[in-house]
Amino acid sequence: MTAIDRTKLKTLQQREESRFLADHPKSAALYNRAQSSLLGGVPMNWMKKWAGAFPVFVKSAKLAHITDVDNREYIDLCLGDTGAMTGHSPEIVADVVARRAKEGITLMLPTEDSLWVGEDLKRRFGLPYWQFTLTATDANRFAIRIAREITQRSKILVFHYCYHGTVDESFAALENGVIGPRRGNIGPPVNPAETTRVVEFNDLNVLEDALKHHDVACILAEPAMTNVGIILPEDGFWRAAQELARRYGSLLVADETHTICAGPGGCTAEWKLDPDMLVFGKAIGSGIPGATFGVSEEVAQRISARIHLDDCDVGGIGGTLAGNALSLAAMRATLEYILTPAAFEHMISLAKRFADAVGENIRAAGNVPRHHRGRHRRAHQSLRLSGRRTHLLGGTAILAVLFIRYDFPRYSLTSSCFCFWPLALLASVWQRYDCLTG
Ligand code: PMP
Predict the structure, then answer these.
(1) DSSP letter at 167?
(2) Largest Cα–Cα distance in the chain?
(3) Does the global pTM surpass 0.90?
(4) How many domains does the chain have?
(5) pLDDT digits (tens, 9 = 90+) for 263-308
(6) Residue 28 shares a structural domain with residue 103
(7) Ligand 1 centre from 77 Cα, in Å?
(8) Domain ranges, residue 23
């Protein structure tokens, strides 16, 4: 195996860091100015996690391109961590949003767009009833509250090292088999061991053991885990997991926020899953804040039996701006014109091409160094190269289609490293290869 020369690596890194400083004088000046008004010099602290001494400040972004304040252009392989998976400001969504913005933005009243979106979501995912929030985090939180209320159970179950947004209950992880706060959990309201059961993905035995306590209101899960590399379900995992959930009276909430890239109806439609609730956010409005959760007929009936109109606005599910007219207009335009079945068909075929070619190149390169991290091992064990599982790479294809449809790279990706999410997808290709070879 080829060893990595750490000294050379350090020299290269220092060279790139100096170049970054020299190339971004205006961003540097703005960042310095921001120190006196923004905590840590950024609107949100995680914006400092980019490579380089400071984040680049953006002047504009269109489709797959970003221009910074120093007039440098980039291919954006991050796309707002899928919030802009449709490309930045697609023309039609931008027009619809501009029109809606002049006709009332937030009304606390429904618009016809909400019906269109609800009907479309019903067709895509099969669940009959829908509600709208501002973020996927909120949609997950509200789904959890509903699950607790209608099952009258206190706990939720998540898979080890999941991510579902800033949902308190989901910041639990296993440390030597014991549930506790996940590393970095900021000010947890209680030890998440009190609220949450955590099990390894793809392990039906431990899942059953956890459900047997009869205290799990719902399983909150991505159909394929996308926030810890890509961990795909083993054959038959979801069919068996759904059966277990039903047997022990727990609901299944499918968080399709990222896995929507598997097809117009996400993994739920692709893999014929049958969740009780489903969450979809981020890309749904091309970046205009908005998200949704859908519920089954049975859940809808149980909600109406327990949740009453008198108190519902102060009951922990809501948000003044939730379901606002602007979000719904953006969602409608996105679903009607951008995330269409035809676009997915094209994207999935590009994904397959991409995966095949990357796999070929890795194979041709022979002895490629690999890197395993303990908590990801199950991912490696669970991956295969075949069949429907490759569909998840649709996410990569979404990027590919953006590049191809909207003016393929004229500028190479820069050292500023706008590349988090697609690299995770790319990593899944590597992991697949890993499990074939190793
Ligand atoms: N679900 C999943 C699977 C996510 O990865 C994320 C965020 N990356 C969320 C939900 C939360 O989305 P948001 O931060 O927009 O609320």
Answers:
(1) -
(2) 67
(3) no
(4) 2
(5) 999 999 999 999 999 999 999 999 999 999 999 999 999 999 998 8
(6) no
(7) 18
(8) 1-43
